[in-house]
Specification:
By secondary structure, the chain is an alpha+beta fold. The protein has one domain: Alpha-Beta Complex (Inorganic Pyrophosphatase), CATH 3.90.80. The protein is built from 3 helices and 9 strands. β2 and β3 form a beta hairpin. The relative contact order is 0.19.
Length: 179
C-alpha cells in the first residue's frame, strides 16, 4: 500500500492561483521547524530554532507545486489563530517574499486565511503595515544565523507576481510528477 502524502494527494484547490489550499507545517508562534517528510508524508521535526525567535505566521506549503528549491512551494498564511500542523486551509494569495537561502531561490508566498474575517479583506501585500514586512524580513534573515547559514530577503512583490510563481510551480510539478 502506498503512503498518503499531502504534497501529492491533496488538491491545490479550484480557485488557483488566486485561492489555494495551504497545508500548515508550523503554527504561528512555534520555535519548532517541522518539515514534510517526502517519503512518508508525515511531519518530521527538522530542528528547534537555534535563535530566540518564533515563527511570525503560520508556515506551510502549497500541495502539487514544485518550487525552484525542488520542494513544494512555501506559503505563509496570515490569521489571528495559530493553525495546527497538517491542517488544510483555503488561502487567498496576496504577494510573495523573494528570498535566497544558501544561494538558492526560496520564495515564500504570502496569503491570508480565507475563513478568517480579521484578515480576508486584504488583497495585496501593499495593504499590510510596513512594519509587518520588516518583521518577516528580520525573522527569515536572522533565524539561521546561529547555524552559520545565510538567508537574504530580496524584496516583497505583489499578488500578481505571486500568482505567476504559483502557476510556474504547478507546471513544474506536473512535468516532474505527472509525466
Amino acid at each position: 500500500m502506498k503512503n498518503f502524502n499531502p504534497w501529492h494527494h491533496v488538491p491545490i484547490g479550484n480557485g488557483q492561483p488566486e485561492m489555494v489550499q495551504a497545508i500548515i507545517e508550523i503554527p504561528k508562534g512555534s520555535k519548532a521547524k517541522y518539515e514534510l517528510d517526502k517519503e512518508t508524508g508525515m511531519l518530521r521535526l527538522d530542528r528547534v530554532l537555534f535563535s530566540s525567535v518564533n515563527y511570525p505566521e503560520n508556515y506551510g506549503f502549497i500541495p502539487q507545486t514544485l518550487g525552484e528549491d525542488h520542494d513544494p512551494l512555501d506559503i505563509l498564511v496570515l490569521s489571528q489563530i495559530d493553525v495546527q500542523p497538517l491542517c488544510i486551509l483555503e488561502a487567498k494569495v496576496i504577494g510573495v517574499m523573494r528570498m535566497i537561502d544558501n544561494d538558492e531561490a526560496d520564495d515564500k508566498i504570502i496569503a491570508v486565511a480565507k475563513n478568517d474575517m480579521s484578515v480576508n479583506h486584504i488583497n495585496d501585500v501593499s495593504e499590510l503595515p510596513k512594519h509587518f514586512a520588516l518583521e518577516l524580513k528580520n525573522f527569515f534573515e536572522d533565524y539561521k544565523k546561529l547555524e552559520n547559514k545565510t538567508v537574504r530577503v530580496e524584496e516583497f512583490q505583489n499578488a500578481a507576481m505571486a500568482k505567476e510563481i504559483i502557476q510556474q510551480a504547478i507546471t513544474d510539478y506536473q512535468q516532474e510528477f505527472k509525466n
